[in-house]
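Structure ticket #2291
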Amino acid sequence: MTQVSFFQRYSQRENHVTNNTLLLLKYFYEYDTRKLQSTLTELLENELPIGLSFGQQVRQEGSVPDGLIMQRGFQILIEAKLDANLTSEQVVAHVKGAKKQNDVDTVMLGLTSSPPSKGTIEKIEEQLKHTANTIFRAITYTDLIEALRNACDPHENRLLAIVDDYSSFLALEGLLFNPDDRLFAVPCGQSHKENKKYGVYYEPTTRPPQLDCGFLGIYHHKSIRALGKIQAVVEAEETSDGLVLSILKSTNIDLEKLKTKVQQVINETSYYDLASTPHRYYFTESVEKTNFAKISKGGMRGKRTFSLSEFSGGKIPNDARELSQILREKSFE
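Resolution: structure written out below.
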């Protein structure tokens, strides 16, 4: 068996994605088995106990031992794809091969960038329906990220940062399903006026980029008070030849216009020398006022991401103006 490593050893892109996915799940397991259990239970829509269970005076056949420590046997198979092309032949072969070697409860996850066709899923389910104690689920990378985030408590900043880093990796690989369903909210203190004026958020390039979200939210004084649809994400560095830009994400915006915008932000920010170190800039198409309030105690610690369809009855907003109206009447903890 090839062990999961903390260092990249694969040249094939699919193996690269699989390795990073397993690393994240392994980290959740080592951090707290309940986190991984919660994640898998949400994805499977089925309770999947992980770890040891403890019992006292549990009746067995013909006897009652004083104590019982038990661990349920199961195996989880993952077939990771860079698109939606999950094939029934491959999935069924995986399950049959695994059951032949280790006939325990089996979960088969088909992990794809977008949902496979209904016909593909039905074909797989039909071919596995007579395979005992086997569950098949087709999930997207977006589904996985959502379940991982839901397993984290709001104060678990390190764990959430790791999920965000994984999410950004997937975004760079083009594996996320619908970024327009996600709002990336950032706490802005002294800079909030410039953030709203220019529709921008900036951060050092040493932090992982947030490329899986379609909208940017500006949080200040217990509420997300402005938002916009992300138009471009660029990294800028001042060199002897002038300002050098690297575009990470863009929707048909001229490079010179971006350079001008970055220079304006640098010039306007008198309280912080943005030109001294490389920074990343998130620019929005426009800025809309809103009032998406945090109702729990304390301020928002660090970045937060939100699934917008949860606040809009399953509907993904068409633009920033529509989203701003929806969120005025909502709140979060």
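Closing remark: The chain has two domains: 1-48+66-177, 178-332.
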